Amino acid sequence: PSNGSGQVCWEAPSNIALVKYWGKREPQIPLNPSVSFTLDTCRTKTSLSYSPRNNASAWFEVYLDGERKPGFEPKITKFFERISAYCPFLWDYHWRIETSNSFPHSSGIASSASGMAALAMALVEVEQQLSGVKFDEIQMKTKASFLARLGSGSACRSIDGGLVVWGVHDEVDGSNDLFGVRLNDSFAPIFKTYHDTIMLVHQGQKVVSSTVGHGLMHGHPYAEQRFERARANLSSLLAVLRSGDLDEFIRIVEAEALDLHAMMLTSDPNFILMKPGTLQILEAVREYRKSSGNHLCFTLDAGANAHLLYPDNEAIEVLEFIKNKLAHYCENGAYICDQVGSGVKKC
Ligand code: PMV
């Protein structure tokens, strides 16, 4: 291996789950399979510089928008320790991680998926540089997805573009619990250009961290039913993704969002993550769907922000509705227009 120093830079997008991952066991193994749209506009860019480590210096430093962030160090330390068995070179170098997000900091959009995915791609490229072994694109993405999963589970779905499945499901070839796999292009073209407008109802820290949230599924009274429903919803959704049946898509996607929140409403301790503005948006989306015939639907993450999904051919009308009727439920009227994207990029 080379003893040199170097620098690499990768960009990775966020993703939004259609069938949700909620509940895991060690080492970051999901208790049900999930599927997500890879996003495009919401991205993290990470530059990773390395040089031989001398014992006096810190193992790594993290910067966000040029500012040193000691607050991020425990999460990165844990990540590095977890992946060191798969990246033994990590111990021998000093790392400088410089990262920036395309979306506003503390907007309530988790940067952990895009952040861990970008860092994982950067590490796989460094591994190639140090070992002199050339990986092909699939090998590189597979390893990066595997590493990203150990940082933040859903991050393994942010490497590839389009629709990505994580977790064993007998109808998805190659699906497994260790990394995300891209659904092949046999799904209906309408989903390749789908939009996701993220309504920033509540910007700021999450009420429940996802680590605590996943933990709540252990001993949860509805855990087994939930995991079973997720598997069934994924089966139904796979058929819909091929057929392009939007009414059925909406039924499944909204049910999944509400299931996720239902799990938090019925855990011990329990959490109400929606804000009044969230509920008002969900209600208005359903009314609009009835009155307009357009295929606007919602999904939710583990927070108050609503993700509004709709096909490209309805985008002009839907955006007008969002701007005129929904934006005022958002903090400072803020929302982010995103769409399905193509995954990681070198920068
Ligand atoms: O990747 P984590 O551990 O932050 O979990 C995220 C889980 C959800 O975003 C709520 C759902 C999902 O599948 O992305």
UniProtKB/TrEMBL annotation:
Residue stretches in coiled coil: none
Domain Diphosphomevalonate decarboxylase-like N-terminal: 12-169
Entry keyword set: ATP-binding, Lipid biosynthesis, Lipid metabolism, Lyase, Nucleotide-binding
Mvd1 C-terminal domain span: 198-328
InterPro entries: GHMP_kinase_C_sf, Mev_decarb, MVD-like_N, Mvd1_C, Ribosomal_Su5_D2-typ_SF, Ribsml_uS5_D2-typ_fold_subgr
A GO BP entry: isoprenoid biosynthetic process
Pfam families: MDD_C, MVD-like_N
A Gene Ontology molecular function term of the record: carboxy-lyase activity
Protein name: Diphosphomevalonate decarboxylase
Organism (species): Aureitalea marina
Taxonomic placement: Bacteria, Pseudomonadati, Bacteroidota, Flavobacteriia, Flavobacteriales
